[in-house]
UniProtKB/TrEMBL annotation:
Cell compartments where the protein resides: Cell membrane
Name of this protein: Ribose transport system permease rbsC
InterPro entries: ABC_transp_permease (IPR001851)
Keywords: Cell inner membrane, Cell membrane, Membrane, Transmembrane, Transmembrane helix, Transport
Ranges annotated as spanning the membrane: 12-34, 46-79, 86-106, 112-133, 154-176, 207-229, 241-274, 286-302
Matches recorded under NCBIfam families: PRK09512.1
Membrane topology of this protein: Multi-pass membrane protein
Single GO MF descriptor: transmembrane transporter activity
Gene source species: Fusobacterium ulcerans 12-1B
Primary location group: membrane
Pfam name, any one: BPD_transp_2
Keyword Cell membrane belongs to the record: yes
Keyword 4Fe-4S recorded: no
One annotated Gene Ontology cellular component of this protein: plasma membrane
Length: 308
């Protein structure tokens, strides 16, 4: 019984924390605030889905925030150049995928450490974004209905980013739980050498895992640019830490091979609820950073205990 409850610790933690916050501030459970939390969470959730795949292989991707910023800037530039919004979206997603492929190639084929590779990509793309934008926001003059709705639209009074988030969580869960790609992803994280000896092309799987992560970061960049109707050169700063925190809080092991997208969904919501609760309780943003850091530390300690 206790073991079963322990396996659902992210859900238990979310319920307990929500009850405490609702008691301290009744506005927390209002429908408007719940939708606001989910909308705010959608960006981190989309990035965290890709991060889940990467961490399941035993890797890490620190470049997602910079990919978000650069791809968001490219999307704004393409739209202002008069390109069809759908074509601009496809190009932007492909660009994010290419960045992910590049990370995956260096990690899998060149045998470089994921931490170093993605740290380099993060720094390079952050500088490239500042150069591309000249350090100034790129305001979108006319993005068309597709671009406007993807980040700022509503369907049945529910923000469209929430639909995108839910769809991707369902797709990510299906991919991991019911496809060969998902089984191979788990296998690599569990024992890469054994997976390689069993005849599975580990390099190809890793490249696609990082490519998926890059594509989802690019999508998050498009949604962010759409919501603000401009591309900010500093967009996505620190988002990689929130994504990693969501994945770890959701029960995915940093050692790889253990975890679920459903857990990541709970982890992302916990991060979103935490931020929203601290805002409702008028906690200073300086203290919020400290509290988030402690939450991540606790999650890592729990992860280590679970592995033992």
């Amino acid at each position: 019984m206790f073991k079963k409850l322990w396996s659902n610790k992210p859900l238990i933690g979310l319920v307990i924390f929500s009850i405490i916050v609702a008691f301290l501030n009744p506005r927390f459970l209002s429908m408007a605030n719940i939708l606001n939390v989910l909308r705010q969470t959608s960006i981190n959730s989309i990035i965290a889905i890709g991060m889940t795949f990467v961490i399941l292989t035993g890797g890490i991707d620190l470049s997602v925030g910079s990919i978000l910023a650069f791809c968001g800037a490219v999307m704004a530039y393409l739209l202002n150049s008069g390109l069809n919004p759908l074509l601009a979206l496809i190009i932007t997603l492909l660009l994010g995928t290419i960045f992910g492929f590049f990370n995956g190639f260096l990690v899998s084929v060149m045998k470089l450490q994921a931490f170093i590779v993605t740290l380099v990509t993060m720094t390079f793309l952050r500088g490239a974004t500042l150069v591309f934008t000249d350090g100034k926001p790129i305001t979108v003059r006319d993005g068309g209905m597709l671009f406007e709705n993807i980040g700022d639209g509503y369907l049945f009074n529910i923000p469209i980013p929430i639909y995108i988030m839910v769809f991707l969580f369902i797709g990510g869960h299906y991919l991991l739980a019911h496809t060969k790609f998902g089984r191979y992803t788990y296998a690599i994280g569990g024992n890469e050498e054994a997976t390689k000896l069993s005849g599975i092309n580990v390099n190809v799987i890793k490249i696609w895992v990082y490519g998926t992560c890059g594509a989802l970061a690019a999508l998050a960049g498009v949604i962010t640019t759409s919501r603000l109707f401009s591309a900010q050169p500093t967009a996505g700063t620190g988002y990689e830490l929130d994504a990693i925190a969501a994945v770890v809080l959701g029960g995915t092991s940093l050692a790889g091979g253990v975890g679920k997208v459903t857990g990541t969904a709970l982890g992302a919501i916990i991060i979103g609820v935490l931020g929203n609760a601290l805002n409702l309780l008028d906690v200073s943003s300086y203290y919020q950073m400290m509290i988030k850091a402690l939450v991540i530390l606790i999650a890592v300690l729990i992860d280590k205990k679970s592995n033992k």
